[in-house]
Structure formats: C-alpha cells, structure tokens
Amino acid sequence: MVRRRALADRRVSYDVVGATAPADANWGAYPRGYRRFERSVLVGRGSDSWERASSLLIAWGVKTRSGFAVEPAPAAPVSTGSRVWLVARIGVVRVREPVVVVAVVDEPGRRGFAYGTLEGHPVAGEEAFVLHRASDGTVWLTLRSLTRAATGPRCALLPVALLAQRFYRWRYLRALRRS
Fold it and tell me: What mean pLDDT do residues 100-120 have?
C-alpha cells in the first residue's frame, strides 16, 4: 500500500519562493533555470466588475472555474501559508498537485495571491494570479508563472506538464470574465 504524505509534511520544491511578486505592478528580474510566463487580460470595467472578480479570485475561483478542485475545500479566502491539493481531472485520471500559498496582496487597486509547488507536484515553481484596476476603471487579471522540471522521477513528466500548463493558462485567463 502506498502511503501518501500529508500536506504538512511536504517541503517547497523550488528555491525562489515569492519570485512571482504579486504585490509588484512590474515584474522585473527572475531566476535562471525557470520558464517565465506573464500575461494580462481585461476582465471587466467598474466597481461591480472589481468586486465580483475579487471575490472569485480570493476564493480560488481562477482554479475552480478552470476545472480544478481545491481540497480540502477552503472555508476562508486565500491566506499565506495555506496548503491545499489542486486536483485536475483528465478523463478518469485525477492529478493531485500539492501547493502552498506563498504571498497574498490585498490593496484597494490590487488583489491576488501566489502559490508554490510542494514535493510531489508534477513541476516545480510558482504561479500568481493578480487583479488590478487601472485609472480608467478597467479591471485586469495578470497571470505570472515560473516553471522548471520537478526533481526525481516526476522530472520525466515535464513535457506533458508543459502541455497541460498551456491548456490551463488559456482557461485561467478566461475564468473571471463574465459569461
């Protein structure tokens, strides 16, 4: 019988915790050896759009509206230090990804969070999801990520993980738009 290690027993699987800098409007230098991705999309205009998108974002809405489950189901907004499983279903296969929230930003014009991978995740690195309001009232979602191969036997999964990552990024960038 395979014993699954608890989330609390898993270490962060990368060495640049906080590197996606969700509190920073401009993302500068990033560490060597990682694939960097940053993209912003318009999600709406005005205070109603800001409130709706903010509420969804801090409740893991980008992930859940993109097809992931969050386990255990969070009872409160995203908070630094929270450890969860992100579970993707691909047909009958369930991929469980252990992560820890490494940063939260909650300012009047900027709200979001970053999570980092824990041991056992198919890749190593960090993703950040940040909403920001422009002076013209537009509301933008920015996705930032740093990715490299996981260590151990999972490193062989990097090509598959990168394909899945592209698919899910496309979904993330649409998750907070009004349907």
Answer: 96
